[in-house]
Give the backbone structure.
Amino acid sequence: MLGNLRRLTQFKGRESRGSFWPYAALVILPSMIVVVSFTVPAMAKFWAEVDAYAVEHPEDVTVRSGPGYYEMSVDGPTGVVPDVGLLFTGVGAGFLTGIVLLGAAVSRRLHDSGLSGFVGLLPTPFMLFGVIVGSRLFASFGAEEVDLSLFMLMFTNNVFYIVCLFLLAALLVRPSTAGPNRYGEAP
């Protein structure tokens, strides 16, 4: 695993499944921690603002609760929106952390099964598009009317993104090519 850290910028060569997957797991965990460390405070602040609005405007708020659930609905726009800048900074930082730490290892792993490292970029345009459209979509939540076409665009994009991630994962678990291939000697 330390070999992967030493080879962060080495996109050439090959990487075996046995050394790639433990490293990938150790990279994905900190990436998710980065995302959560931004998301949780932003959402906690948002819900605190919603609760404050409910206290100040009880005539606009209906609260239902029971064993295992709590529901609050607001009649009309509140003007309260989550800090999407903070949310998307966290998501972007988490993705960037993962991309930087996994990029070369993914490329070498794909080389080991005889594929070009560029295949690893397959989910990237969908991820970038999702961050851009997602920030616009969430920013529209404070408006009188949410743009549902943005929601459908985001939903469709996310379906393609998830399909690309599963396809990439399937390619990363492929067995190594025996002996040397065009990318080098077997690891």
Notes: The chain has a mean pLDDT of 86. The helical segments are 2-6, 17-56, 84-112, 124-139, 148-172.
